[in-house]
């Protein structure tokens, strides 16, 4: 399982850091999309999203869940075994909660 701390991918302005490798930027954008999607409907009323899995050749999409107690976001591909947990996403620019 990937455990991702969202703030590790961001620069001082809260944007995805430009000096990262392409792969790191892709992963950061993927996490941002999950946070963006999940916080539009928080806590999520459905688990499936249209976010595409990052694994090469995988055609799966990402399912999401949130632990509202510690606010960890869990994501999992519905086809392959990729899964992870996102922390420290609160107050990033993808946090749509009011
Ligand atoms: Zn997958």
Question: What can you tell me about this protein's structure?
Answer:
With 98 residues, this protein is an alpha+beta fold. The chain has one domain (2-87). Helix content is 18%, strand content 28%. The protein contains one helix and five strands, in the order E-H-E-E-E-E. The chain has a five-stranded mixed sheet, covered by helices on one side. A hairpin with a 4-residue loop joins strand 3 and strand 4 (72-77). The longest helix is centred in the first third of the chain and has 18 residues, at 22-39. It is globular and about 35 Å long. Residues 53, 55, 58, 60, 77, 79-80, 82 line the site of zinc ion.
Structural topology:
Blueprint: E1 2-5, H1 22-39, E2 48-52, E3 61-67, E4 72-77, E5 83-87
Parallel strand pairs: 1-5
Antiparallel strand pairs: 2-3, 3-4, 4-5
The structure holds zinc ion.
Zinc ion (ZN) binds next to loops.
